[in-house]
Amino acid sequence: MSADFPVALILIFGAALIPPLRGAVRRAYMLLLPLAAFICLLAVPQGMHGQVELLGHNLVLMRVDKLSLLFCYIFLLAALLAVIYALHVEDTLQHVSGLIYAGSALGAVFAGDLLSLFIYWELTAVSSVLLIWARRGEHSAATGMRYVIVQLLSGLFLLAGGLMHWRATGSLEFGQIGLTGTAGALILIAFGIKSAFPFLHNWLMDAYPEATPTGTVFLSAFTTKLGIYALARGFPGTEELIWIGTLMAAFPIFYAVIENDLRRVLAYSMNNQLGFMVVGIGIGSELAINGAVAHAFADILFKGLLFMSMGAVLLRTGTIKGSELGGLYKSMPWTTGFCVVGAASISAFPLFSGFVTKSMIMSAAADEGLLLTWLVLLFASAGVFHHAGIKIPYFAFFSHDSGIRCAEAPRNMLVAMAISAALCIGIGVFPRGLYSLLPFVVDYEPYTASHIVSQLQLLFFSALAFAVLMRTGIYPPELRSVNLDSDWLYRRAAHGFATTFHDTLTKTRAGLAAGIFAHAEAVIGLIDRQRRPGGLLMRSWPTGNMALWVMVMLLAYLLFYYAGNGHA
Amino acid sequence: MTQSSDSKKYWLDSSANVTKLFHGLCAVCLLLIAIDLFLHRHEDFEFVTLFGFHGFYGFFACVALVLTAKQLRRILMRPEDYYDRDDHER
To answer: Do A458 and B68 touch (CB under 8 A)?
Structure first.
C-alpha cells in the first residue's frame, strides 16, 4: 500500500462495514482491523506523506516520525486490546463507534497540519460520546451531552487558535507552537481540555465512569493521551506546564481517597498520572520528553488494565461502588490477580512498567533542580499507590466480605487483561524495548540499587500507613455520596444563576407590563372621554383659529431661518 | 450473582492471618530502612540521602493525604442524588 494512504481510514471506513457482519465473522473482522492497520504502518517510511492540496493549503495526513509512531503503536495496541475486551458485547453501536474513535485518534496523531488535526479532533469527540450514550440511561444521556459539549468546545478553541496562528505565521503546519500570543494560548486551552488541566478536567471524572464497562476501556486510552501527544508536539519546554502538571499530579488524589465509585477513583488517578506527563513536557529536556511519552505509553496499558478489571466487576456484580463491594477475590481470582498487576504498575513497583517510565520524569525534574515539583511528584507517587494501588484492589476484591458471589469475568475479558498484564510486566522487566521507540536516544538506567531501595521504601511505608489507618479505624469509610468538583460550577452554580436570572427577568417583565397596561388604560380612558359629545375632540372650531395658528408657525419658521443664516 | 452460600473458608477470612500479614509488612519496612545503613546513595538532592528519607516521606505523605481528604469531605461531600434532585435550592 502507498505510504500516502492515511492508516486511520482503515479503522474509520473499516468500522462502517461492521453492521452487516454477524457472529464469529464480525469478531474476526474486528480483531483484524487494528492488525491490518499495524501491518500497513510497518511499510510506511518516516517522513511527510499523504500531502493534499486544499484551497491553496498543503495538508499533511501522514506525518510519520518517532513521536507520532510511538503514539500510533500504542493506540493500535489499545484498540486491539479494547476490541478483545469487548468481543462478548452484542452492540453494533459500541463496536462501530469504538473503532471510529480509535481511528480518528490515530488520524489526529498523524496529522501534520492544524486543519486535519481539527477534523480528527472533533471526530474523536463525536464518536466517543456514543460509548457513553450506549449505556442507554437517562443519566448517561445527560452526562454524554455534557461530555460532548466540552469536547466540541475544545475543538472550537483549536479552530480559533489555529486560524489566528495561520494569520500570524501564514502556515497551517502543526509543529512547535509555544505560548506566544493569543493563538498559542487558545491552542493550549484546546489541548489542555483534552489533557484535563485543572479546572478544565472535570469532563473526565464526570463521563468516564458513566460509559459502558467496555466503553470506558476505549475512552481511557485515546482522548487524554491525544492531548498529551499534542502538548508534546506543540508545547515542549513551556515552563507554565511544569506548574500546571504539578498541580494536576497533586489535587486529584485527595478526591480519589474519598470517592466511592471505583471507576471514578481511576479517573482521578488518571488525572494525576497525566500531571506527571504534563510536568515532563513542561521541562522539555530530552529525558523529560522521553519520560512523558513513555509514561503515556505505559499508562494506556496499566490504566486500561485497571479499567478492564473494574469493568469486569461492574459487569458481574452490577455495581462499582466501594461501599457495596468487597471479598470478590473469592469469586473472581483471575480478575483480582490482573488488577493487582495493574495496581503494581501504576504504583511504579520495580519490575512493573510505571517504575521504568515515571522515574525518567522524576529524574528530569531533579536534573533541573525543581525541588518543589520533585517533592510534590514524590508525594503524588506515594498517593497514587495509596488510592489506585491499594484502594482499588482492596475495596473491590478484599476488605470486608460483601457476600456477593458471582462468576469470573468472561473469557475474552480475561484474555485482554492477561495480555495487558503481561505487557505491563514485560515493559518493567525489559525497558529497553520501549526505550528504543522513544523520540530521543535514551541514556537512562532505571534499575540502580539506590533507586530500587528508595522506591520500595516509599511504597512499603505508604502501604504501612494504609494498614495503620485501617486498623486504627481512622481511614474514612467508603460512603454513598458525590463529591463537589469543578463541574459544580456549571451543573449547580451556573444552573442556579440561569434559573434566578430567568425568574427575575420574567417577574420584571410581568411587572413592567402591568404598569404599562395601567397607564395605557388611563390614557385611553382620557381620550375616550374627549370623544364624547362636548369633549375636546368633538367640539367645532372657528376657521379663523386655524389661520391664526398657521401664521404663528410661519413666523416661527422665519425666525429660525434668519437665526440660522446669521450664524453661517 | 448470588448472595453468600459457599461455606469455604479462605486464609484471609481469619483475622489472625490478617494480623500476621500486617506484622510481615512491618518487618519488610524495617528491613528496607535497615538497608539505608549500608547502602551508599547517589541522589539528586543532598537531603534525600538522609536516613530513611523515602520511607518516612511516604508514610507521612499518606497519613497527611488521608487526614486532609477526610476533612475535605465536610466541604465536598453531598448525597448521592445531589445533581439529580429537581429542586435546586442550596
So the answer is: no
